[in-house]
Amino acid sequence: MKMTRDAEYDLVHEMEASLMELMSSSLKQRLTAEPVRFVYQRDMPDAMVEMLRDKLTISRYDSIIPGGRYHNFKDFIGFPNVGKANLVNKPLPRLRHIWFDKFRNGFDAIRERDVLL
User: Fold this and answer.
1) d(CA 109, CA 115)
2) What is the pLDDT of residues 47-72, one digit of tens each?
3) Pairing relation of β-strands 2-5 and 35-41?
4) Concatenated DSSP letters of 1-46
5) For residues 104 and 106, what is the distance between their CA atoms, to the nearest angstrom?
6) Closest CA relative to residue 7, chosen from 27, 73, 16, 24
C-alpha cells in the first residue's frame, strides 16, 4: 500500500526562507497531514482495506485506488535474478569523454565547465 498526505509548499515565502527550510517544513507537514490518496494491492481483502481506511482516517472522499503489487518505480530496481541469462541485461561498456581525462576526477571537470554527455 502507499498513502499520500497533503502538505503545503508555498513559494511566496521563498524570499523569507531558504529552499532547504521550505522543503524541510513541507516534509514535516506530511507526517501529520490529512491523507488524500491511498493505493492498495488489488487482491487485498475488503475487510483489511476497510480497517486500514478506518485506522488511517481515510474518508470515502479521498482517492482510494486499487493497484498492483508495486506502487513505486524503485520497486522495480531490486528484482532478483531467476537464473535465466536471457532476462539479465549485459553490463554496458564504460564510455570515455576526453574532457574528463584532463582532470583528477569528474567533479573537477564539471566544476571547470559544463559537459554534455
Assistant:
1) 8
2) 988 888 888 777 777 677 787 777 66
3) antiparallel
4) -EEEE-----GGGGGTS-HHHHHHHHHHHHHHSPEEEEEEETTS-H
5) 7
6) 27
